[in-house]
Amino acid sequence: MDKILRIDMGAEGGPSLTVFPVGEFAGLGGRALTSAIVSKEVAPLCHALGAENKLVIAPGLLSGSVAANSGRLSIGCKSPLTGGIKESNAGGMASQTLAKLGYAAIVIEGKPKDGATYKIVINKDGATVKADNSLKMLGNYATVEKLAKEYGDKPCFITIGPAGEMKLSAASIACTDMEGRPTRHAGRGGVGAVMGSKGVKAIVLDDTGASMRAPKDPEKFKEANKMWVAGLKKHPVTGEGLAAYGTNVLTNVLNEAGGYPTNNFSIGRFEGHTKISGETQAALETERGGLATHGCHKGCIIRCSGVYHDKNGQYLTKQPEYETVWAHGGNCGIDDLDAIAMLDRLDDDYGLDTIEMGATIGVAMEAGLAKFGDAEAAINLVKQVGQGTDLGRILGSGAAVTGKVFGVERVPVVKGQALPAYDPRAVQGIGVTYATSTMGADHTAGYAVGSNILGIGGKVDALSPDGQVDLSRNLQIATAAVDSTGMCLFIAFAVLDQPETFQALIDMINAFYGLNLTGDDVAALGMSVLRNERDFNTRAGFTSAHDRLPAFFTNEFLPPHNIKFKVTDTELDSVFNF
Amino acid sequence: MDKILRIDMGAEGGPSLTVFPVGEFAGLGGRALTSAIVSKEVAPLCHALGAENKLVIAPGLLSGSVAANSGRLSIGCKSPLTGGIKESNAGGMASQTLAKLGYAAIVIEGKPKDGATYKIVINKDGATVKADNSLKMLGNYATVEKLAKEYGDKPCFITIGPAGEMKLSAASIACTDMEGRPTRHAGRGGVGAVMGSKGVKAIVLDDTGASMRAPKDPEKFKEANKMWVAGLKKHPVTGEGLAAYGTNVLTNVLNEAGGYPTNNFSIGRFEGHTKISGETQAALETERGGLATHGCHKGCIIRCSGVYHDKNGQYLTKQPEYETVWAHGGNCGIDDLDAIAMLDRLDDDYGLDTIEMGATIGVAMEAGLAKFGDAEAAINLVKQVGQGTDLGRILGSGAAVTGKVFGVERVPVVKGQALPAYDPRAVQGIGVTYATSTMGADHTAGYAVGSNILGIGGKVDALSPDGQVDLSRNLQIATAAVDSTGMCLFIAFAVLDQPETFQALIDMINAFYGLNLTGDDVAALGMSVLRNERDFNTRAGFTSAHDRLPAFFTNEFLPPHNIKFKVTDTELDSVFNF
């Protein structure tokens, strides 16, 4: 990981590829690297779909090593959805593969003039870019199937679906999982539209002949990784809970807490929650011959993913995540798991962020385009996106645009990005993260739900504004650091509760790179990432006025707690006081 | 004009009306008053379509008097198009009528819960609000026809069309002209959507029994008005040019200057310009029995408006203004005056801003929805808005949303509002106004075209960045003051060139109100208006990053001068140094 591949898609005479030493960006990985490059090299006021924007794809610091759960891939750019900086990360096989091939990052720049559809092929011999119009407007599933026919099933693929090609702001980038399916998405912020604007449909990554990355101190690294694995296995969430029911274990928990946003954030509890809970889902998956537990990438020991079969026992989609089940489920009043799984499949195939799409359908339902609870109507709405109809283009542009086009007032977005599956009135800490994150509303940017609801990393009362700013600040800093390691964010459950597991992570990094980092250094890294991102956003025109929830969260009471969001503007403005 | 009528559309038990003394807002009129109320009373982060926004309708300081050309009505709110403060003004009969009835302003607040369509009736006996669902979704023409049947043709009407009822961001508010036609629009910034969000379809203003407003010093006032009229008649633009050919006299002028934005701001000259010029238009109007000169309100002596008949000699629409002819004409490559007039008629009937719609169709053409030059396709696109189709809702949401939904990079907007009919690369002064105006791109906010192209108020080289910031600053200050008087902005041509005409205007205000204002006081008023507006926008989240033209104006050369926008960011940031 000592080189950066830069591809200028707009070069005269066709795309040009150049490999640079990592240089000034040495020592950075994942989000730290994507945000550093975007912040330094992208003009904050450029058009997100223009030649000036850059798509930066970076494995984490420990990706490509044998460190458990180190397979997250960061993808950064100026976001067409928020207008600010974006880092969206995904599991799947791409991060490990890219890291093993030695790339700290791929930077895709410029914009082709010919309107052709391109694929990038990277293997141990180097990289090439070729036009391949036969891939144009294929779904992600058909795309990877076609690529697998050409390149075999050994490589992994990074692809976009029709949504990305249409440059829609809710478009995701898919990474194939261990079975070669395009199920792991860098979903948020429209990164797929930026890839589409560069004319790039697919990246083929083949690590045949490449070795695992070797640590500087193999013995120490092995020892630290052992501690690391033990720590993850010991913690009840990473060791058992997530494996048993997947992330969707949260449906019943959040519903019980009254923080499960139902019918476009109108109520905090959903009557049909047991029908779509993780427990129900896992039982159904097992019964139909799918998988209730499964790892999304090699080296995962948490195994929170799964495989969802349809009524006939045929593969339909990967196990829908909690956020997806909520977005397409309770948020739209839908209590039918098969319908939700179908929506997940459609989103994955078209290349769409499931959170943004679920929130968007909720807004469309509020506008009267369909009734809350009408699963068939919801499926038809998402199909519009795949078909590229006018309505589909509206919906595929996300909740903010859909609200604007249909004159809806209750639109749950911050900085243009839809809120995930926790109502900020009943989980006030996550409200602070939604409001202030550099990413727009993003639960992964500082998962205060842990302390607010699950009692992980200490307990902060979910219904009180007290302590939420400190909580969110610390989590945002820690998360920015974790997102730079390539580690799956779920490791945070164990790291926050078990000091020795946190130390094992630091020991792994130190052993791998021959460093002597302390916990303070990790925090400093997180802060520097956030500073880079805030700086970009400030230059893009963001102010404290953008660090706010939509007015209805402070104006409307949320049942059953009948509570409003109570963290003050002054408190919100202190989140980045560090 | 010593009272303010406040209507709370969201009051329990139905709309409530209260008349207040003008109080702290005494001495303010037009834009100064709307911006003062909006800035003080509207939460900058509220949803523009929510109960918290307020629609403020205010005649100018001299409206309702015999002062020539004092009939502009200001309408203010938080804009659903820009997210910032908005003042949009219109001619027609409403301003004079409202002023004669004694109202400094009508403030429409709240939001009805019943979804009914309301009309407000104001006469010398007071004001009432009534539900009238028979008006729902009628075009502006059918609306005023129906109202005239009920209230006679003596009153004037302020109405919205279906676009406003659909709460689309390009929706205008129509004021009837001297013939009772809904042709004079407060077009910009989506004020019609705000009226629609309040459930108000129409305001009936009947000044039967009300007298003209009387000056404090009738003799001095009469004398000043005489000088005023003489000054307007003496100046070649206000005395002759505008009367002969209307505002569309500018087509040939701007085309010759190479600053006529053609095919979505790709070129500065349009091959078909002579076919749609003011000269051609006036001849056609006369030939068909329309009118090439006409006043849009009582007391107008400039008479730049007109009446456009179709091929059969039947009334089709008012004489399309220069901006409209450009927006639907050259900007879309269309050289057919009848098609442009039809587009103007449709916009007026649906209640849409012609500038925003023309720019939007240009963006749609760039997206490939129609070919540049295809008039029939353009008409069909605008008809979609009236029909409320999905595509119509996209287009009716303006150029920025349309660009986002269709993934277009070249979208000519500032702060979300479309650029008018002067390319900022060939008319660099107006580029400064577009970039920095509190209103979003707005030629009327500081009409540097006068000095850049027409040699009015001094000459500043249109192609050079030198002197443009000072020019725009002074014009923006002067305009904010003029917009507060009720005076039509075209008086500025005479006021800028003839010191004695400027003095006559000040003398009229002094004689009317018993004041001793100087030219400095007028400038101070303009500055205070801009400060109020900037303050609101800052609190709404605007920064210097929003005071910029879209990147393509600084990246792409404009033929025939092959020039880019050259005013630097630092210079732009000095516009409000006062």
Account of the 3D structure:
- Two copies of one chain form a homodimer.
- Chain A has 578 residues and is of the alpha+beta class.
- Among the domains of chain A are: 3-205, Aldehyde Ferredoxin Oxidoreductase,  A, domain 1 (4-Layer Sandwich), CATH 3.60.9.10; 248-423, Aldehyde Ferredoxin Oxidoreductase Protein, subunit A, domain 2 (Orthogonal Bundle).
- Helices cover 40% and strands 14% of the residues of chain A.
- Chain A has helices at residues 30-41, 94-100, 140-151, 162-165, 191-197, 218-234, 236-245, 250-256, 278-287, 322-328, 337-350, 354-366, 375-387, 390-396, 399-405, 428-436, 449-454, 468-485, 491-497, 499-513, 519-539, 552-555, 569-572; strands spanning 3-8, 16-21, 55-59, 73-78, 85-90, 103-109, 118-123, 126-131, 156-159, 173-175, 184-186, 200-205, 291-294, 305-309, 315-318, 413-414, 417-418.
- In chain A, the strands form four sheets. In chain A, strands 2-1-6-3-4-5 form a six-stranded mixed beta sheet.
- In chain A, helix 11 packs parallel to helix 13 and helix 13 packs across helix 14 (390-396).
- The longest helix of chain A is centred in the C-terminal third of the chain and has 21 residues, at 519-539.
- Chain A starts with a strand and ends in a 6-residue tail after the last helix.
- The model of chain A has no long low-confidence stretch (mean pLDDT 97).
- Chain A binds chain B through residues 43-47, 49-50, 52, 80, 166-169, 193, 196-197, 389-391, 393-394, 397, 401, 404-407, 409, 411, 538-543, 545-546, 548, 550-552, and chain B through 43-47, 49-50, 52, 80, 166-169, 193, 196-197, 389-391, 393-394, 397, 401, 404-407, 409, 411, 538-543, 545-546, 548, 550-552.
